[in-house]
Design a protein that fits this description.
Blueprint: H1 2-13, E1 18-23, H2 27-39, E2 43-49, H3 53-61, E3 70-72, H4 76-84, E4 88-91, H5 94-99, E5 105-108, H6 113-125, E6 130-132, H7 135-152, E7 156-158, H8 163-176, E8 180-188, H9 201-207, H10 211-218, H11 221-234, E9 246-247, H12 261-267, E10 270-275, E11 283-288, H13 292-300, E12 308-313, H14 322-332, E13 345-351, E14 369-375, H15 376-382, E15 394-395, E16 410-411, H16 417-439
Helix pairs in contact: 6-7, 7-11, 7-16, 8-11, 9-10
């Protein structure tokens, strides 16, 4: 952060701000646009791509930009011309935003798996570094997309402001001290697997969010995607299907004795969550010291006598922090968070109610399914359905409430970019594993 603010200030002073293309003008997109346009002169939100041009333009005008300074563009050349003329641009065509030569970095701010996959592939195709706010996509197809981005020579990374990167920032800090992280935790205010868009409609309206988004927070799907993302970027795993999910009304510091440390160490570290703890809505990392000298100074620093020490961040500020990742990626080549190989943890689709053959599954945060974490090994062995590809699948047989869906329970839609990416991801890492085994 100390380096980043100075670097962004220098770009602003030189009149060379980083040119950003953003996909999405929803709740998060509005917040990010306001933050960049009002408070981060080292970045320039050059274009917003959204299905509704009115909403895209509204992100600009809400910050005081005159409508005469906003230009609708239909080709990459038109976008480049708009940037050169000091104009702001809107478009409905993701390819325009990804292909323009003057765009330095893209931002995925929709959280929709299929759309996010398409614009991520466009960014990779046109060799544009991307920051993604899409934990759902990352936990579904992130490993293969990261591999493709590496092959293209660009960075594809998650965004500051949401729990996975807040956890990773703290993991990097703890590792930098020479300590060993054992548990990465996410703090929730509530969890009810059976919440639906109907039960969450009033809360969604209050905050200007979609009922589906809010439902995914409440039913545990969102936190499952976030913790899978964290696991796959740290090399950690989970203790059991669905994670442990303690309920605790005190401070997270009090939980350092709540875990079976021998089990956690044997697993190589775990991701988890806790409901009701403080500081809410923060995150925590429990770590152990590397030597006796560290233990002395940790005790002196009021962190206790161990063997596990509690570190936490009391907040995550979503749209207010996303620009930090854009700067980290574009100015320093730093990766806030990304998968480090084949998935360790997946999110599997689970019936929210009794499901009937012939029904078409709705999406994340819907009426029909919720997502829970499972190890990739068990998911493969039991042929479980990833939550991120469930939408649009048709049930081939009845599935009882709380049962995890298997591939035998569904038929998949045709021409699905997400299903294609999953197949490519599975094939890639299966081949890689076979090659490694052959060498061994």
């Amino acid at each position: 952060m100390i380096l980043l603010d100075t670097a962004l200030d220098a770009r602003a002073a030189a009149g060379q701000p980083v040119q950003v293309a953003m996909f999405g003008a929803g709740y998060m997109g509005r917040g990010v646009s306001s933050q960049i346009l009002r408070h981060v002169p080292g970045l320039r939100l050059a274009v917003i791509c959204n299905r509704s041009l009115e909403k895209a333009a509204g992100c600009y005008t809400a910050t005081g930009i005159n409508p005469s300074a906003i230009r609708e563009v239909h080709t990459p050349a038109e976008l480049d011309d708009a940037i050169s003329a000091g104009m702001y641009a809107v478009t409905t065509d993701p390819a325009v935003a990804a292909a323009a030569s003057l765009i330095d970095v893209t931002l995925e701010a929709t959280g929709h798996v299929a759309y996010g996959a398409r614009v991520t592939l466009l960014s990779i195709e046109h060799r544009k570094p991307m920051v993604s706010m899409n934990a759902e996509l990352d936990a579904t197809c992130g490993a293969i997309l990261k591999h493709m981005a590496d092959e293209a020579g660009i960075i594809l990374a998650g965004a500051d402001g949401d729990q996975p990167v807040v956890q990773m920032n703290l993991v990097r800090y703890v590792r930098g001290l020479g300590l060993k992280p054992l548990i990465c935790g996410n703090i929730k205010g509530l969890q009810d697997r059976y919440r639906t868009p109907a039960t969450q409609a009033a809360f969604a309206k209050q905050w200007g969010q979609t009922p589906e988004m809010v439902t995914s927070f409440a039913d545990g799907t969102k936190i499952s995607f976030e913790q899978a993302m964290t696991a796959n970027s740290t090399g950690m795993t989970i203790a059991r299907r669905g994670m442990i999910g303690l309920e605790h009304r005190g401070h997270v510091d009090e939980l350092v004795t709540a875990y079976d440390l021998d089990e956690v160490r044997a697993l190589g570290g775990i991701v988890d969550y806790v409901v009701g703890s403080q500081p809410n809505p923060g995150i925590f990392v429990f770590a152990e010291a590397g030597d006796d000298t560290q233990k002395i100074y940790l005790d002196y620093g009021k962190l206790g006598q161990g063997p596990v020490y509690s570190f936490y961040t009391a907040w995550h500020l979503t749209a207010l922090e996303v620009h930090n990742s854009i700067g980290r990626v574009s100015l320093f080549g730093d990766i806030p968070i990304a998968p480090i190989g084949a998935p360790r943890v997946e999110v599997v689709a689970t019936a929210k109610r009794d499901l009937k053959a012939g029904e078409t599954l709705d999406g994340i945060g819907g009426f029909m399914t919720y997502g829970v974490c499972e190890t990739a090994e068990i998911m493969k062995a039991e042929n479980l359905v990833p939550m991120g590809i469930a939408e649009g699948c048709v049930l081939t047989r009845d599935v009882p409430k709380d049962a995890v869906l298997t591939t035998a329970d569904i038929s998949v839609p045709k021409d699905s970019v997400v299903h294609d990416l999953r197949a490519r991801q599975d094939a890639h890492f299966k081949t890689l594993q076979a090659q490694n085994e052959a060498v061994a």
